[in-house]
Amino acid sequence: MAKKKKKTMQMEMKNVYLPSELIIEILLRLPVQSLIRF
Predict the structure, then answer these.
(1) Residues 19, 27: Cα–Cα separation, whole Å
(2) Considering the entire predicted model, what is its pTM?
(3) Is residue 3 part of a domain?
(4) What is the total count of domains within the chain?
(5) Percentage of residues in the chain with pLDDT exceeding 90?
(6) What is residue 19's DSSP assignment?
C-alpha cells in the first residue's frame, strides 16, 4: 500500500510548475554555504 501512495505522490509532483520569480526568491533567502554545495 505504501508503494502505491509513494508512486502517486511522484506522479503528482511532475505536474507542479514553479514560476522562475518564485524560485529566485527562494534561492535568495538561502544561506550562501547551502548554495555553494550545488
Answers:
(1) 13
(2) 0.42
(3) no
(4) 1
(5) 16
(6) -
Distance CA 37, CA 6 (A): 28
Residue 33 maps to a domain: yes
Strand stretches in the chain, DSSP E: none
* More confident site: 26 or 36: 26
**DSSP summary character for residue 14:** T
Q: Is 8 within a domain? A: no
User: How far is Cα 35 from Cα 31, in angstroms, rounded to an integer?
Assistant: 7
Q: What is the DSSP letter of 30?
A: S
How far, in Å, CA of 30 to CA of 28, rounded? Answer: 6
CA dist., res. 16 & res. 26, Å (int) = 16
